[in-house]
Structures are given as C-alpha cells and as structure tokens.
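User: I'm putting together notes for a lab meeting next week and I want to include a structural view of one of the chains we've been expressing. I don't have a solved structure, so I'd like a prediction I can at least talk through. The sequence is below, exactly as it appears in our construct file.
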Amino acid sequence: MNEEIKTLRECTKSAKNYFLNRLAYTLGPVELKNFMEKGGVKIVDVRHRADYDIGHIPEAISIPKDELTENLDKLSKDMVSIVYCYNQQCHLGDSACLVLAEYGYPTMLLEGGYDVWVNDFRFATVTE
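Assistant: Thanks for the context. Below is the predicted structure for the 128-residue chain, given as structure tokens.
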C-alpha cells in the first residue's frame, strides 16, 4: 500500500473533514424525498431536456447543464438547489453544482442521479 495513503487513512481529522463535506454536499434518494416533503428546496435536472421529458423526479425543473448559467434566474440563493444527472459516473451534476457554488447558490448533489432514484429505489417519476 502507498505510504501516503496509509498515513491519510490513519489521520482521523482528515477523515472527519472529508465525511463532513461529503454529508454537507451530497444526499441520497431517501433524504431527497424527506427534503421534498419539508419543502424549501429546488430540484434541478441537468440532463438533456429530451431525457427530462421521458421521465424526471417529481417537482424537478429542467435546466440542462450547458444552459445553466443562462437560467440562474430560475433558482434562488435563499434555498438549496438539489442537482441530479444520469448516474454515478455522470459528472454533469458535479460540474453543475460547481457552477452554482461559484455563483453563490447553495447546492447539493443527488448521489447516483436519476438512475438510482428509478432503478434502485423505484421512486415515482413524472413524464411530460
């Protein structure tokens, strides 16, 4: 094992910071459902609009990643924008969250994206 990795794994302070950040900026489908019930969040689908039309998470708005900066007026800096994309390997969601954070919008990423919402948890979807 790489000594640097071994040293990091033994540093509980670094681990604590990593997991605090991970919990602060990501959530899973069950947590998203809880947020939806409480309100006060905006769910943003950054996939291609055609895929949004086929199916999306209830209450989500479609803002494809490449149109995000032109549509910031659809979001609020007073509520958390929860972003999702296709799946765990898709980085559209990560890059969209980075853009939102750079513009001062509180944001979180739905881990696993639409794929986990639909296939792993079998939660309801909406079609246009």
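A couple of points you could mention at the meeting. The chain has a mean pLDDT of 95. The helical segments are 3-10, 12-25, 29-38, 49-54, 92-102, 113-120.

User: Perfect, that's what I needed.
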